[in-house]
Amino acid sequence: GNSVTQMEGPVTLSEEAFLTINCTYTATGYPSLFWYVQYPGEGLQLLLKATKADDKGSNKGFEATYRKETTSFHLEKGSVQVSDSAVYFCALIWDTGRRALTFGSGTRLQVQP
Amino acid sequence: DTEVTQTPKHLVMGMTNKKSLKCEQHMGHRAMYWYKQKAKKPPELMFVYSYEKLSINESVPSRFSPECPNSSLLNLHLHALQPEDSALYLCASSDGQGGEKLFFGSGTQLSVL
Lengths: 113, 113
What we know:
The complex is a heterodimer of chains A (113) and B (113).
Chain A: E1 3-6, E2 11-14, E3 19-21, E4 23-26, E5 32-38, E6 44-50, E7 56-59, E8 62-65, E9 75-77, E10 86-93, E11 102-103, E12 107-112
Parallel strand pairs in A: 2-12
Antiparallel strand pairs in A: 1-4, 3-9, 5-6, 5-10, 7-8, 8-9, 10-11, 10-12
Chain B: E1 4-7, E2 10-13, E3 18-25, E4 31-37, E5 44-50, E6 53-57, E7 64-70, E8 73-79, E9 87-94, E10 103-104, E11 108-112
Parallel strand pairs in B: 2-11
Antiparallel strand pairs in B: 1-3, 3-8, 4-5, 4-9, 5-6, 7-8, 9-10, 9-11
């Protein structure tokens, strides 16, 4: 079946540390890939996306590259801030047929001052 | 206006009660969604409305009844719920062109006693 797998959390980092949150997917066809972020007490917000192989999505210092050969879409940030503390969800949507997002399990990030 | 507004923010109900969750957006989006999110889990799709017609029902029990009175409003009617239905209920909307960029409300935290 089609699925998204994320690394287990929580991920705890000190401020200004480098962040990587791993995401891999299983798919048939060519899905579009997304990272959504959920801050405490809020709904989800789109952080970035990539719609085809080798595309790089970026926003607010976060980046992720669509790697078809490794079926991955890892989220990275060079220097995290306390305000980045949230839950990050990797998600995908298929290019045909049922067009509704499938989310990974989420990874909680805690950034300490 | 890029907001999706959900009311109420919190709801406590008994198993014999009937209640409704409401969702409103004024972005001109033609697709609207209900998701259910249990604590520390990803959102799970329940229903999708496209152009005010139900297009996806993820085999949700009939005690949950969605309604889309017009293109700006989405309701979720609740009746005879079970304690395991306690969760955060998230509404989202998109422009309907691909269901990719979802705009989420902050949710209704539902407790069933």
